[in-house]
């Protein structure tokens, strides 16, 4: 964003955060409703590759008098179908919630920061009133060379937390953590990073 929203700037002025510096989406991948809707559409299609053959083979067995085997296969297909529909429904619900709350934006000021859901709440904090944890993990793509990636977990004065990945601004997490008094990262695994990212989604 080229400038903060009016209500974010009003919160910053009330908290005496100084001059606005920049605004960014701190966790854009997890905060995209389109991504969740695409997965919701993909899950039933993927499940169909297992459900349809199982159901067909099961029906053939029932028709050929192998009743127990046939109904077991049909039952297995039904279970997979139900699980796929439940997972798809959950993914749709997540996407709808993001649409309802709006994207998460982090506004950086000289003396503090503002977290804002564009259709939800806004919280401002001075850097000395926010707590940060800095992490580093090894990431890779398609078997290529690995690289270190950093992210921060911010804890606001109201005890809410937000993960700051900001792939478009790799230095953002390190800079924010430093302003909150933390300079040395803790090394964790990729799986732990994924878990932390989802556990600290600011709402």
Please specify the SSE layout and strand pairing.
Layout: H1 6-14, E1 20-24, H2 33-63, H3 67-101, E2 104-109, E3 112-117, E4 122-126, E5 131-139, E6 147-155, E7 161-164, H4 172-179, E8 186-187, H5 190-199
Parallel strand pairs: 5-8
Antiparallel strand pairs: 1-2, 2-3, 3-4, 5-6, 6-7
Describe the structure.
This protein is α+β, with helices and mostly antiparallel strands and 203 residues long. It has five helices and eight strands, in the order αβααββββββαβα. The protein has a four-stranded antiparallel sheet, covered by helices on one side. A hairpin with a 4-residue loop joins strand 3 and strand 4. Helix 2 runs antiparallel to helix 3. The longest helix has 35 residues.
Task: Write a concise keyword list for the protein shown above.
46% helix, alpha+beta, 5 helices, 4-stranded mixed β-sheet, PH-domain like, 203 residues, 8 strands
């Amino acid at each position: 964003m080229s400038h903060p929203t009016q209500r974010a700037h009003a919160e910053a002025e009330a908290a005496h955060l100084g001059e606005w510096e920049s605004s960014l989406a701190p966790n854009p991948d997890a905060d995209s409703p389109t991504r969740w809707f695409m997965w919701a559409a993909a899950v039933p299609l993927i499940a169909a590759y297992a459900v349809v053959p199982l159901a067909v083979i099961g029906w053939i067995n029932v028709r050929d008098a192998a009743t127990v085997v046939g109904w077991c296969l049909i039952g297995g297909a039904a279970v997979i179908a139900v699980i796929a529909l439940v997972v798809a429904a959950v993914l749709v619900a997540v996407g709808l919630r993001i649409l309802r709350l709006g994207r998460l934006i982090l506004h950086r000021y000289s003396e503090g920061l503002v977290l804002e859901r564009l259709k939800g709440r806004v919280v401002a904090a001075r850097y000395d009133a926010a707590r940060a944890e800095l992490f580093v993990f090894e990431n890779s793509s398609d078997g290529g060379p690995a690289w270190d990636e950093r992210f921060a977990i911010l804890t606001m004065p109201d005890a809410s937390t937000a993960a700051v990945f900001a792939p478009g601004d790799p230095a953002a997490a390190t800079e924010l953590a430093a302003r909150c008094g933390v300079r040395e990262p803790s090394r964790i695994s990729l799986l732990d990073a994924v878990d932390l990212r989802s556990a600290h989604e600011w709402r």
